[in-house]
Amino acid sequence: MQITRHIIRNQEFCLSSERSVYWQKEKTLIASDMHFGKTGHFRKAGIAVPQSVYKEDLQRLFNLITFFKAERLLIVGDLFHSKANLELEWFRRWRQDHKHLRVDLVQGNHDILDASWYKQSGIEVTKGSLHIDQFCFQHDPAECIVGDQLHEDPYLFTGHIHPGVVVSGLGKQSLRFPCFFFGHNHCILPAFSRFTGAVSVNPKEAEAVYAIVNHSIIRV
């Protein structure tokens, strides 16, 4: 795992090649678009997606919390993919083993479970946006737009679109990789789940994009 530090408004955030951000000041691990239960959803539809995909994502989450000694997990939408299935029950058991960890979820479009499920799992759900200090967390960046501009203040962390960037190699070869996107007034987080696609973003001057290539972070 590689860590790259990025400063926003004089506060340090640690970008991880495991598709998450650690906020030093708040001792908070930030991630988006985990889509837990998605592999089970596909298997119900007759598509043979191995359960190991989900287990690896859950293990990565545990490793990150342990590595950073995080006291809080903040998910910027789409913690779960759809309705309850066996994989979500595994998550609830995992949650029982980590009761010390505060878990906040900014509700995304896929977070459609009954409110009682989140409550029983020790997950605090916020609809719309969650404000902490000089930062705001909201799942869909489109919902933050006023006119044709994003809010200037506070600084926004969003997800939803699963950002990616195309990196060109020798000749005409090119590949798309998930990425962190940092604009002047907002960040778009990569999808935490590896079982997702990516939509290309086109950075402008003074915007920062960090591609996640295998276990490395490359600024492009």
Descriptive report:
- With 220 residues, this protein is of the alpha/beta class.
- The chain has one domain: Purple Acid Phosphatase, chain A, domain 2, CATH 3.60.21.
- It is built from 4 helices and 18 strands.
- The chain has helices spanning 38-44, 52-68, 86-96, 115-120; strands at 3-8, 11-16, 20-23, 28-31, 72-75, 102-106, 123-126, 129-132, 135-138, 145-146, 149-150, 155-158, 163-168, 174-182, 186-188, 199-200, 208-213, 216-219.
- Strands 8, 9, 12, 13, 14, 15, 16, 17 and 18 form a 9-stranded mixed sheet that branches. The protein has a 7-stranded mixed sheet with strand order 1-2-3-4-5-6-7.
- The longest helix has 17 residues, at 52-68.
- The radius of gyration is 17 Å and the shape is globular.
- The model has no long low-confidence stretch (mean pLDDT 83).
Any descriptors?
about 220 residues, alpha/beta, Purple Acid Phosphatase, chain A, domain 2, nine-stranded mixed beta sheet, seven-stranded mixed beta sheet, globular
- In N-to-C order, the SSE pattern is EEEEHHEHEHEEEEEEEEEEEE
Approximate shape: globular
Mean pLDDT: 83
Which fold name is given in CATH as the topology? Purple Acid Phosphatase, chain A, domain 2
Q: What are the segments in which pLDDT stays under 50 over at least 5 consecutive residues?
A: none
What is the tally of beta strands? 18
Specify Rg, calculated over alpha carbons: 17 Å
State the major sheet.
Answer: 9 strands, mixed
CATH class division: Alpha Beta
Count of alpha/pi helices = 4
Please report which band the strand proportion falls in: under 5%, 5-15%, 15-25%, 25-35%, 35-45% or over 45%.
35-45%
Domain count: 1
The CATH architecture would be: 4-Layer Sandwich
